[in-house]
Design a protein that fits this description.
Blueprint: E1 7-13, H1 17-29, E2 33-39, H2 42-51, E3 56-60, H3 68-77, E4 84-88, H4 91-96, E5 104-107, H5 111-151, E6 155-160, E7 163-167, H6 169-175, H7 197-208, E8 217-224, E9 230-242, E10 245-253, H8 262-270, H9 280-295, E11 301-308, H10 311-318, H11 320-336, E12 343-348, E13 351-356, H12 361-376, E14 379-382, E15 385-388, E16 391-398, H13 405-421, E17 427-429, H14 432-440, H15 444-457, E18 460-469, E19 476-485, E20 491-493, H16 498-503, H17 507-526, E21 532-537, H18 540-543, H19 548-558, E22 566-571, H20 572-577, H21 579-591, E23 595-601, H22 607-613, E24 618-621, H23 623-627, H24 633-648, E25 652-655, H25 661-670, E26 674-675
Parallel strand pairs: 1-2, 1-3, 3-4, 4-5, 16-17, 19-21, 21-22, 22-23, 23-24, 24-25, 25-26
Antiparallel strand pairs: 6-7, 6-10, 8-9, 9-10, 11-13, 11-16, 12-13, 14-15, 18-19, 18-26, 19-20
């Protein structure tokens, strides 16, 4: 266990000095050097948590106030990664505290158990800190490597099996491309003149057969720009590894690209041209440094996320040119409002961000109010009309619990959205507990009421995502995805509420609602596109419902549809848990023309078991394998094994969660039948995918 100076920084919450001494002596007896502090009021505890770094908190349940749940809520509210142990006076108190959220509940008299729990929680917290430190170090290393590549005057690319997987800005400029996406998945051979293909292949083949320790290989060939122009280039190959995967580094040197000074490049990188404030990239660097400082115990900070309310309306009113002038004026005013050690950046179109090096909530609230007032006091007169600005500000902590700058920005952005939903021109602070509750939509009981109302009032809705053919038979297939419309208009995916529906045995009714709505939509859509088919998920509850297929037949008949229009799917684990019911359901559905698929295939320990006992038509490869397969050799091997096994069994396989061009290209080479994912098409409430124009 590596900790600063080998000292255990312990915060004890107890109104008894004797009780605190007993705890300290027990921990010291176990071999820990303890630096302890004792507090017994909520105000004192909050001040201690906000202004100091602790390794462990131990609180007594014997106090009248505050009680352990209040202390734990305070820890969560301040977003502190701090293990909390609760000492209970007797067995009855111990059992009552099991649900309070503590890392452990220990009888006051059980010294051995306390010492064991302290060792365990210290090991865990220091491992978490070490993981965050390593993660930050890795990001810094990757950032430096990426920055070196991006600032390189040489054109640099990385290839895997002859395909581009990374190119820097100089490479794009050299070949005349604007975005990296324009070159994703493009074979490197396409960048070489046809006349030089033979010589290039010969040199490259000789290079690939050499060991990784050999020197780089160089070849001079004619290259082709995006507009077809030819230019002569010297290409250097060397062996490399990117994210653990063997690949080839390609460096193309062109003296014509060496323009501009390093100082000018750095200036343009660090400062926004319009406002003169720190650019987004430079501000992110500063935010990462603030997070690193907090993690090392050098002081917390807070982030302000300032958004100009309804600025799009201002743009439409005064035009783009005048709106830029307004942004520049606001930036100047915000800069003048800065205090010592505060940093400000221009993050995006109408967003400014400020780092305040303080963990004093009251002081930061006052600073946020001063920024809000600066914007509120701004008035501009344009062509006889008045431009009156307002802003919303979100505040989030920058402390040891954060792993990335993006986390801090997301938290501040969420708080800012709350301020905007409340009418704007106000300040909101991010509260982790409230955010978790908002994400889950409340307690399970609240969800039961919501879901019952949703069924009664049609507050659910459907999205559709196309499943496209790569090597399989051409079909027009959509997967049907359930969504829930909240009162504020936001849409939640099924993952947010499905566990609550299952808890209250509501999945059978929800499945029927989905199928009724889907069949309504399919019947209408087939009038113009008769080949369209739907993939529809079934729950475990429906799988075990005997009369379900009879109900389905009646519903299909009412819409003049037959079972061939539908493919039903259920997760592999659910099917294996209810194997007899699954076999019966599959047989019944096939009797009426439906097909059947297993979702998340590969989740089980033995892939072959599902294939040997279930007569299914489709296997959907577990998306966790597909999502990172281009960067993960183990996932790639698992996907390859599943595809080969599927073909041997005469089944059709579908890869879900396809999120990038590299994964799609790899799936093509591996021979997958069908693909589905955000890279191909996001879920939509419209059935508008053009299958005939599909060039995948």
């Amino acid at each position: 266990m590596a900790r600063a100076e080998g000292i255990l920084r312990l915060l004890i919450v107890d109104d008894s000095l004797t009780g605190a001494d007993t705890v300290i002596n027990a921990i010291r007896t176990a071999g820990h050097a303890v630096r302890a502090s004792r507090e017994h009021t909520l105000t004192e505890i909050e001040h201690a948590l906000a202004n100091h770094t602790w390794d462990l908190l131990i609180c007594s349940d014997a106090m009248t106030s505050p009680k352990p749940p209040e202390i734990i809520n305070l820890i969560h509210g301040l977003a502190k990664d701090l293990p909390c142990l609760v000492l209970a006076a007797d067995k009855a108190s111990e059992e009552a505290l099991f649900t309070c959220g503590a890392h452990d509940v220990i009888l006051l008299a059980d010294i051995k158990r306390l010492q064991f729990a302290v060792d365990r929680e210290l090991t865990n917290v220091f491992n978490r800190r070490l993981a965050r430190r390593n993660e930050r170090a890795l990001r810094e290393s990757e950032k430096r490597s990426h920055a070196l590549l991006e600032s390189s005057r040489d054109a640099v690319a990385y290839m895997h099996e002859g395909m581009h997987i990374y190119v820097n800005s100089a490479y794009l400029a050299l070949f005349g491309y604007e975005e990296a996406e324009d070159i994703d998945g493009l074979p490197f051979l396409d960048m070489i003149s046809v006349d030089d293909h033979g010589r290039f292949k010969s040199v490259f083949r000789q290079f690939t057969e050499q060991s990784e320790t050999t020197a780089p290989e160089t070849v001079t060939v004619q290259c082709v720009k995006s507009d077809g122009k030819i230019f002569k280039a010297s290409i250097e190959f060397s062996h490399a590894r990117v994210e653990g995967e063997n690949c080839t580094q390609v460096v193309i040197r062109d003296e014509a690209m060496l323009t501009g000074s390093d100082q000018q490049v750095q200036l343009l990188r660090d400062h926004d041209f319009l406002t003169g404030l720190y650019s987004r990239m430079r501000f992110m660097d500063e935010l990462e440094q603030a997070i690193h400082a907090a993690a090392e115990g050098n002081g917390d900070a807070e982030l302000l996320y300032i958004v100009l309310d309804e600025f799009q309306s201002v743009k439409e009113k005064v035009g783009l040119g005048i709106s830029d002038v307004i942004l520049k004026s606001v930036a100047d005013l915000l800069r003048k409002n800065l205090q010592q050690d505060e940093l400000i950046g221009y993050y995006s179109d109408r967003v400014f961000t400020v780092i305040i090096p303080s963990s004093d909530n009251d002081a930061v609230d006052l600073r946020a109010e001063s920024y809000r007032k600066v914007v509120a006091d701004y008035v501009s007169h344009v062509d006889g009309s008045t431009v009156d600005l307002r802003c919303s500000i979100g505040i989030s902590h920058i402390n040891e619990s954060l792993s990335t700058a993006e986390n801090a920005l997301e938290n501040a952005d969420r708080a800012c959205v709350q301020a905007q939903h409340a009418g704007g021109d106000r300040i909101e602070r991010y509260h982790p507990l409230e955010d978790k509750k908002a994400e889950s939509g409340g307690s399970s009981t609240e969800w039961q009421t919501k879901l019952e109302q949703a069924l009664q009032n049609d507050e659910f809705c459907l999205n559709y995502q196309p499943i496209v053919a790569l090597h399989g038979e051409e079909q027009e297939i959509y997967e049907v995805l359930l969504r829930y419309k909240q009162a504020d208009g936001t849409i939640l995916s099924a993952e947010s509420f499905i566990k609550h529906a299952a808890q209250f045995d509501m999945m059978g009714d929800i499945d029927k609602w989905v199928i009724r709505q889907a069949i309504d939509a399919l019947a209408e859509h087939q009038q113009k596109f008769p080949k369209t088919r739907f993939f529809i998920k079934l729950s475990k509850q429906t799988l075990c419902t005997r009369e379900y297929v009879d109900w389905l037949c009646a519903t299909l008949n009412a819409h003049n549809l037959d079972g061939r229009s539908l493919v039903f799917e259920i997760s592999e684990t659910a099917a294996l848990e209810h194997i007899e019911q699954a076999k019966m359901m599959i047989a019944q559905l096939k009797n009426i023309g439906c097909e059947f698929g297993l979702e998340h295939f590969g989740s089980g320990i033995d892939f072959s078991q599902s294939l040997s006992v279930l007569d299914v038509d489709y296997l959907k490869i577990n998306g966790n394998f597909v999502q990172n397969m281009a960067k993960d050799a183990e996932n790639q091997a698992a996907v390859k094994a599943i595809i080969e096994m599927t073909k041997q069994a005469g089944k059709r396989c579908i890869a879900e969660f396809v999120s990038d061009a590299n994964s799609l290209a790899l799936l093509w080479r591996l021979g997958v039948d069908y693909a589905q994912g955000y890279y191909i098409h996001e879920p939509s409430d419209k059935l508008d995918y053009n299958f005939e124009d599909d060039d995948l």
